Amino acid sequence: MPERVSPTLLNLPIAVAKQVLEKLEPMDRLTCRKVCKSLRTAIDTIGINFDSITFEVEDDYVKIIIKNLIIHYTNSEIAVDTEKKKIIKTQDFMERALKDLGTLIKYAKMLRIMEREFHEDVTPLLEVLESKKPLFAHQIILYAFRLSEIQSILPYFDAKSLTGIILWDIPEEPDSSHYFEQITQLEQWKSAKFLLFRDFSFDNLPFEQLFHFEKFIIELETLTIEHAIKIRDDLMKRDTFRECTIWFKDNDSFDEIFSPELNERFTIRFEEEEDFEFGYESEFKFFVKRN
Question: Which residues pair with 196 in a beta bridge?
Answer without folding.
Answer: 166, 217
